[in-house]
User: Fold these one by one.
Assistant:
Number 1:
Amino acid sequence: VLLQPTRMVPRKGIEDTLHLARRLRDPAVKVVVTHPEPDEGKEYVGQLVATADRLDVDFRVVPVGPGTEIDLGDAYTAADLVTYPSRLEGFGNALLEAFYYRRPLLVNRYPVYEADIGPRGVAAIEMDGDLTDQIVAAVANWLSDPGEWVAAVESNYELGRRYFSYGVAAKVLDAALADVGR
């Protein structure tokens, strides 16, 4: 399962995940998107379905969260790889969720990732806008031998705890609010 835990909008790069699934040449691979709401119209969703059909990729939209039978944590647990090929993000909640749920990660180096997240030492398969043969090979390696990514996900979990946790956010906000009160 290649899990893309994002909304279905063009900037999320879902097409890259579909092309990755095709290039892996494994009929067992499924692409799962967890957020069905078509924020920018149903036309894009139709384009994704058409692309998946053309590429012969098993593409599924599996809504998670309140009002569904599937918890977000269940989706992450089922994932063999979390794909986050977003071209633009404000920060990247799904990225931090992948850290928390200890899942291996493919991430596009979007601007905030490059500036604030990646430099912390994230262990992920990184792409710079293009899905290269080297990236496909790295993904295939991780999928064929989960032992290859165990250290990476543990490291990312600790990075998330150290730099991006609620506890860290509370300290930063407390310090900021203390400065305002002076």
Number 2:
Amino acid sequence: MARIRIEPSLASAVEFHHVSLALPKRKRRQGGGRRQRLRRLAGETRREEFAAITDASFTVLPGESILILGARSAHRRALLRLVAGTVLPDSGTVERRFPWIPMIDLARTLGRGFTVRHNIYLLGGLLGMTPAQVSERVLDIAGTAGLTPKLDRHLGQAPASVRQKLAWATAMATGAQGYAVDEVLAVGEPAFREQCFAHIAELRTRGVTFLVASDAPRLLDATFDRALHIDDESRVHSLNVDEGIERMRAARRALRSDQDPQDFEDDN
């Protein structure tokens, strides 16, 4: 049985069945990077791993808006990536009713040496759009991002806010039914952020599903139906939003006092 699959007849937007995933720790290397890679290939050393998700079983219904909480960003991102299908679980199964768009560091995929138009085609293709679909939507994407006059100019040294707006506009143009979002529910200057939230509110009225991971949920101008909290044993719990936030804060206090912050760095 496939560990991740799409089931169009599924009643839920996504279902996790006893899903576990381990990821490599990122610690300061001992010696040169090439030497370390060769030693791993020779079997002389192995990357240390940590449990990102442990025996997770939960269901997300179509149209739900869920806040993903946890003391460590690597765990939250791991859950989003499992939902979106960009990583496979080590055990268990993930069933999805439809493809999900992973809004995780999308702006980093944009190439400075390409034009705005080329970047829209590149990112749109990575997010599942066909060239014909991108062609139909490229002007709307550029217009949303405020880049129509620069459509055929190289992205070059454009500031991060410009790249974020272009990535956000491209992701929204996919017309997906589900979005797995890491911190970037809204981007750019205040006016553009208001535009983002208005568009997301409209999508929610259409039944689009959102999973949003954040360590500052009070800064998100959005209403969530419930929370999924990842505890210090990497287990996932479904809670109301207030309870989930309180558990996250308690876990962060414990993490700061008990753990070396380099032990569990972000996996990116």
